[in-house]
Design brief:
It is a single chain. With 212 residues, the protein is of the alpha/beta class. The protein has one domain: Nucleotidyltransferase, domain 5, CATH 3.30.420. It is 43% helix and 16% strand. The strands form two sheets. It has a five-stranded mixed sheet with strand order 5-4-3-6-7. Strand 1 and strand 2 form a beta hairpin. Helix 3 packs across helix 4.
Length: 212
């Protein structure tokens, strides 16, 4: 939590703190897809107006799919600016998932049309950018712009995995979105990895070693 300049008030929401200190364009940044065994990591950056409110907005993982879809439409139509980008499987393998996630979030910020005065990043790692920024642990539960970014990233990635399901129906990506569910692990046992599996991830690399 940060102390508001010239006041005794303390804010659990860093977004409120920066707005009360005169910062107008705050970009909230989050990613989706760090944990799955398959598919890209997706990041979003969102800049909201100070008076923008989305009823029910919170961490995308706590929302029902239909709630996320409704919020995604509202965010895209009402945000001052937003960007959604992907970092693919081979880049995840080359960089590692943490660096790939940070790269995706940095790329989302650089894709924005508006220049953010402050970046609020979900988590405890800063982005590889020279912009003013603040990592915020549990940011998707504390900052509206980060929560909005989490929704855009999650919905975009889910759609991608549904598209991959049509190409690789034997894995049922539409259901588990690439996460290591029992169904997915059984499909890997039967079919082995496909082109969008992360070959450096536990649960995938074992089958590659066995094939070799």
């Amino acid at each position: 939590m940060k102390q508001l300049r010239g006041s005794k008030a303390v804010f659990a929401d860093p977004e409120t703190y920066w707005r009360l200190n005169g910062v107008k364009h705050i970009a909230g940044v989050d990613e989706a897809g760090r944990g799955p065994l398959a598919g890209p990591v997706v990041a979003a950056a969102v800049i909201l107006a100070a008076d923008t409110r989305f009823p029910g907005l919170r961490d995308s993982k706590l929302l029902a799919p239909q709630q996320r879809l409704t919020l995604e439409t509202d965010i895209r139509s009402q945000a001052l600016d937003y960007a959604v980008v992907e970092v693919g499987v081979r880049e995840i393998e080359r960089l590692g998932i943490l660096k790939a996630s940070l790269k995706a979030m940095a790329r989302a910020v650089k894709t924005l049309t508006l220049l953010p005065e402050m970046i609020l990043v979900d988590g405890n790692h800063p982005l590889p950018l020279v912009y003013p920024q603040q990592p915020v642990i549990a940011g998707d539960a504390r900052c509206p712009s980060i929560a909005a970014a989490s929704v855009l990233a999650k919905v975009h990635r889910d759609r991608l995995m549904e598209c991959y399901h049509r190409r690789y129906p034997q894995y049922n990506f539409a259901q588990h979105k690439g996460y290591a569910t029992p169904e997915h692990l059984e499909a890997l046992r039967v079919w082995g990895p496909c082109a969008i599996h992360r070959r450096t991830f536990k649960g995938v690399k074992e089958w590659l070693a066995e094939e070799q």
